[in-house]
Every structure is written in C-alpha cells, then in structure tokens.
Amino acid sequence: MRPTSGITLGGRYQLQSRIAIGGMGEVWKARDAVLGRIVAIKILKEEYAGDPGFLERFRNEARHTALLNHNGIANVFDYGEADASAYLVMELVPGEPLSAILERERVLSPDRTLNIIAQTARALAVAHGQGLVHRDVKPGNLLITPEHKVKVTDFGIARLADQVPLTQTGQVMGTAQYLAPEQATGQQATGSSDIYSLGVIGYECLTGHRPFSGESQIAIALAQVNDAPPPLPEQLPAPVRALLMSMLAKDPRNRPANAIKLAEAAEAIRRGDVAAARAAVPGMLLHEDATEPMTQATGRMGQPTAPTAVVGGAGLAAGAAAAHAARGGTAATSALPVVTAQSGEDDGGRPGYGPLAAGPLGADDDEEEISEQPRRAERKRSPLTWPLVALLLLLLFVLVGVWLSNSGLFSPSPLPTTSPTQPTSPSPTPTTPTPTSASPTRTTQAPTTPAKVNVIEAAYLGQHYTTVKTELETLGMNVFLNPVAAQTGTMGAVTGVTPSGPLDPGTTITVTYLVVQPPATPTTSPTTNPPTSPSPSPSLTLPNTLGGN
Question: Which residues, including other chains, have CB under 8 Å from residue 165's CB and lie 6 or more apart?
Fold first, then answer.
C-alpha cells in the first residue's frame, strides 16, 4: 500500500499530511476518528511488511513498546495491518526532531548537549530495564518539545534482548552513521550499543559533524569498527570530552556500565561535580590526559572571567584543578578552563538550559594577559633564590653525614657502604632530618580509599543475567549466580540483585534469575541449557538494508 493523504487505516485513522520519510517507512499525521485526537502513524515499507517472520516479531515488539511508561518515550497507542502493510499508531509529540535543530543551528553548547544526553539516557534505561534495545538511536528519533524535553521515538526495529535477532544472518539493521561496532559486525545489540549511538549524537551536537563519514554506508560502518574517533575540540571542557569519548569506546566494556550511570555522569558534569561523574563512569579516566595543560577561556560575549570558574555553583574548573593537583600537577601555574554560569538563557536566546549555557568555550586577546601573570611572578623572584637553596641543602647533607659518622652508624670507610656484619644499617628514622622540604622532587600522595559503587537493583531487573554479571564484574564486584526455577517468565531474566546500594569494590553480589521449566519435556533440563548468544562474527557483513541519515 502506498500511503496518500485522505485514506483511512483500520477504519479510524485518516491520513492528513506526511511528517517524515525514513529507512523503515513513512510517518504521517493522522486523525483518530473514534477518539477525535491527532496521532502520528508510522507505515512500514512493503518489503518489511511482506515478510511473515518480520511481521510476527514486529507485532510482539509493538506490544512490549506499548507497555513502556516513561515521559521521555513517545507512547504507542495501536498497531494494525492493512493492504499488506503494517503500521504503528503513536503519540504526536509537539516540537521538532533533533536532526532539524542540528541542521539549523549546527553546534549546540556543552550544557545543552549534556541535557539531551541525560534525558535520553534515562528514557533508554527504562527500555533496557524491560529488556528492550532500541538499536536505531539517532537525531531523527529524538524529538525536542518546546519545553526542551526529549521524547525517544521509533522503537520499530528494536528487539528484546532475550529473543532472537530480527535480522537474518548477514543482515544489519540501523543507521550506519550511528551504528555501534558490534552491530556493524553482526553481533547482538545490547543497551551498550544504544549508549554508543547516543555518543555519536553528542559528538555531532558539539562539533557540527559526525565522527565518521565515508562515500557509502559500508565505508562508514567500516570506520565505526576500525577507526578511532577524531579528538574533540580542546576548547570543550575536559570532563565533557572524556565522557563523550568513553561512550564511543569500541569495546562495550569500556563504555558507561548502563544508561542510568551515563545519565548520572552527564548531570554531575552539568552541576560541576566532576568527581561524581568519574565515580559513575570510571571509563572517563581512560580519556583524560594528566599532562595536557588546560586552556584559559572566557565567558559570554568575549568578556574575560575571573581565574575561578563557576559552573552550577561547584565549579567545573575547580574540579578539574583538584583532579590535576591530585595527579601531581602544580595548581599555581596551570591555566584553568573558565565557564561562566548564565542562568536563564543559552547561546541561542532560549531559556532553561542551565549553567553551561555559555556556549562553546574559546579564548580571546585577554587570554595571553591572564596566562602571563604566573610567569611575571616567577620573573620577579630574586636570582639568588635557587643558589641559596642549593647551599643550604649542601650544608644540611654535611651536617647529617657528620652526625651519622659520630654516632657509629657508618664505618670509617670512605665509600658509603656498610659491613655485612654490622648489626645496624642506615635507615630513615623519625629523628633524622631530611631535605624533602626543600627538594625539588615531587612527593607521592598516599593512596586514596577506593570509592564505593552504587548498585541500583531496579536498573538490572528484567535484564539477562549474563549482561548483569558482566556489568557488575566490570564495576569490580564478585558475582554469585542464583538460578530460580519457574513455570512462566523470561528465561534468564534477573529478578533480584542483593545486596544493593553503595558497596565496596569486591563485594559479593547475588544475582537471582529465572530458569523457565516447561512442564511437558522431562528429558530437557532448562538449567543445563543457558541462553546462548550469537558468536561474534570476525568479519564485517553488511547488506543494503542500512537506513538513511
């Protein structure tokens, strides 16, 4: 069936105007004649609707999507088939897709980007908690309302994590520009795959272009698998860059553990709590360069700001300076990124985007004057300072040597060696003066106590136990699997995670999951046949079913 204006589907949905065209079908604005409301209808292409196997699986997933209840997910009202074509009736969200905003504005501010990432991640976490993976997260499927709220749409090619893939061998579903490497190589898509796609969106929002491009869909997918994403601009805050690069990690184990952790990290960076962001996403530390000097920046309209940055009250630059000092840096001579808190508007003049709304960070002519101040202070030091320090050190070493010689701790040999028969050996004692206070060498800080890991039981309920086990072990926990037999339910679905809450790394966590036992097959033991996942394909297998932008 070719959709046209004026036709009626299912005896109640009259098509009015086409909203968009995608790789899977067309989206139309329609009027529900029964309830008198305006809805959106996605009509699948005939090549998909004509496959009985695809239709059956799509019906099942339409039912599961309709059960998702979250204000960040567009509601699904109905599903139907007419004239050899299937369609979904969905909530018509006021606003526009993120793709249209990017086409118009090109680049978004860091705070606005983090806000979109956090909202999308919390919506995806609800779907992942039900075992539903979106598999096609892209700007066209993120609707932004006039109140700056995000609505995730189009779970049309989504699949349940505990079911067989929708695609056949050698086929890949999704959009190449936002496709996770494991999807491009034909492996099973997981919640981590959606996080990777969201990372591509964040990269595009901050730079105005996608990290990978090519002459064809296959070339782009190859780049997703083999190439490292180009570095983000250095003008962006370091925590923002670290979070985005962790989302784009090729290995899913190096990405944020789940969508909830990603949302917590994005929200923490927005309010300036970099330590909390690193605790939620430890992979950020893999992408932070401890030796790279951070550039002094200016606030809005090119006005220089004070050396102390203010971001959401806590200060993004203060957190970065503390982390730099903890790694052995010198806070007095390190330039810090400065972002001023502009409450009430963003760089586009729209209210409500929060403290990072100052837009892309950049330097102006005042940067050189600000960064020159520490160097001027150094030049004002007396030229006799270092020779005097060296003389004092030499005198201190001589005094220590005389004292040790008189105390009998050293033999009269001119060499600084001791006899193997001596009962005592020179060792530092509390009473021995040491030159460390004047030594130019850098001292090593005492190791800090490892941070606790916040295990949220609700985030894992309904997921497959192998996925939960991998995520918890990635967080440093010991996992004990507790299978529970049941007559109904989803094979391998997690029903309990104990203990939960803030836990020390290394804590043993019991993961309880269902083992469904069909009542009619005595020869088959469900506990001896755990669900298997398709083995990773060593080579790239891509068809012509990749979606468009």
Answer: 159, 188, 189, 534
Q: Which of 189, 209, 208, 191 is nearest to 247 (CA)?
A: 191
User: What are the domain boundaries of the chain?
Assistant: 8-91, 96-287, 300-374, 454-523
Q: Are 349 and 359 in contact (CB under 8 A)?
A: no
Query: Hey, which bits of 166-284 come out as E strands?
Result: none
Nearest to 539 by CA among 187, 243, 208: 187
Query: Does 111 participate in catalysis according to the annotation?
Result: no
pLDDT < 70 stretches in the chain: 23-24, 57-58, 61, 156-174, 289-385, 407-450, 518-549
Statement: 454-523 belongs to CATH 3.30.10.20: yes
CA 292 to chain centroid, in Å, comes to 22
Strand, helix or coil for residue 253: helix
Q: Say whether 454-523 and 96-287 share the same fold.
A: no
* d(C-alpha 323, C-alpha 331), whole Å: 10
Tokens of 217: 């869909």
**Cα dihedral value 332, 272, 452, 476, nearest 10:** -90
CB neighbours of 417 closer than 8 A, spacing ≥ 6? Answer: 411
User: How many CB atoms sit inside 10 A of residue 31's CB?
Assistant: 16
pLDDT at position 234 = 94
What is the pLDDT, as a whole number, of residue 284?
95
pLDDT for 464 equals 87
Distance CA(500)–CA(454), nearest Å, equals: 7
CA distances from 545 to 387, 419, 542 (A): 73, 80, 8
CA nearest 27: which of 71, 93, 82?
93
Total count of residues recorded for the chain? 549
User: For position 401, what pLDDT does the model report?
Assistant: 78
State the pLDDT at residue 255: 97
CA 368 to chain centre: 34
> How is the chain split among helix, strand and coil, in percent rounded to 5?
35, 15, 50
What is the model's pLDDT at position 344? 34
List own/partner pairs for 316-319 with CB under 8 A and 24 or more apart: 316/237, 316/239, 316/269, 316/272, 316/274, 316/356, 318/272, 319/239, 319/272, 319/273, 319/274, 319/275
Residues 6+ apart with CB under 8 A from 292: none
Q: What is the CATH number of domain 96-287?
A: 1.10.510.10
Q: What's the pTM?
A: 0.53
Tell me: cis bond preceding 307? Omega within 30 of 0 counts: no
Catalytic residue among 111, 136, 154, 273: 136
Superfamily name and number for 8-91:
Phosphorylase Kinase; domain 1 (3.30.200.20)
* CB proximity list for 33: less than 8 A, separation 6 or greater: 8, 12, 13, 14
Separation CA 1–CA 7 (nearest Å): 11
